[in-house]
Design brief:
single chain; alpha+beta; signal; 8-stranded mixed β-sheet; 5-stranded mixed β-sheet; 33% strand; coiled coil; elongated
Length: 453
Amino acid sequence: MRKQKLLTKALAASMAVFMSVSQLSVPAFAAEGTKSVSIAGSTYTYSAEALEGYTQIGNSGLYYKLTNGTGLSGTIYGTSNLTYKEFYSGDVSSTDSFDVVTTASTSKYSVLSNAWTDYKKESAEAAGGYHVKGVANVNIAVDSDLYVESIILKDANKELSKAYEEASDITLNENPTQVPSQYKTLQNNGSYVSNNKTVTTVTDAVPTLTTGSTWGEYEIDVVETSTKYLRNSRQDEGFPVNSTIQGIILETTEGYKVGLEHLSNIWVQPYKLSFNVANEAATMGIAKSDNTAEFAKLVNKTINKITYVTPEGNYVYTFADGIFIKPAYSEEISGTFSDDMKSFTLNQLPTVKNGTLTVTYTVGAGHMKTPYTLYSGAIAKSVSLDLNAIPSDAEGGTYSVTISCDDYADIYVAIPVTEAQKAQLQELIKQAETALKGAGADDSVLLAHKMRQ
């Protein structure tokens, strides 16, 4: 009996202990384990539980701690790809028009190494082109905490804010604390600011404006006199501003700034640049610009500064006299050739300053075209043409008439087809139709002959 009572007391005590243990408070947020990521040779461990010594990442519900290595601190540096809107933010007057440059070619995707494209051979060939999305390999400065936290959040598949998303795309340099010459700083709101390091300022270069070139509605060529920075040959060597160029900024005397884009405005030889103000596709059929609204604001303004942006810094060119961006002539000017093509007559004379009339016969196209000048001189109602300027063995070509002047962009004279030319064209069509009918008849005879065989 005594033994039974002792067992009963022991059982009761055990039950009391069990009941007291079951009533202990359970943590509202149970631990879910930890995970680790390696960043620049250091290990950071994170958890969904507020462990001792761990720091919370905003309101994400994640906590992290350096668990191995020296860790990162202060400002660190790497590279990233930026859209044109991001790249030029704060450096130009407006980035509202920037989207992407649409190419009409499946080539030239690698000629400018810092153009960020979506080129893939199969998709580009299928679509007949690709897109230039922005600037590649841009040096970026970022706060180390922002960077580390972005990598942890991305590893945990958490939703990223704009700043964290931008930071997570950065590839750290091998030595992330070494300061590059030129860089952009990623701010906590996800935007960028540039340190804008100026390597040098050139004041004696000579700019030339051409309107209606094969490269665009407006082309500016900058020819250096005492310096040799801008590549103007087929090789990069010896030119600090070369095919690695990241951007170009045009600035007017009023301080308005416009940014340029690769393959639309910036070429592999950066001494030459171009832009369109009306026809966004007027660039040799290579690319379609998306910034014509900004370029249109340059018309009737004077550009007195061009900044060439490279990974090593900015090369700034200033022009005392500036580059006046001429407006288009508002009226159409037309004219006609004589039937023997020995003279040209303007149907109306334009009102311009220091005008020059030029009549040209051009053979070939693109880089292979050869122009022959039949007349270049004062504007007159009718001018005689020098047909001897065209070699006797020249291939078939096209005639064009332009008027250049001080106050307007080049005027391209419309050349309506005359009645005599229409008659000649109709005669050629008839001859072609007759030849085709003859060929068809020959084919019928041949077919009948084969069938008899």
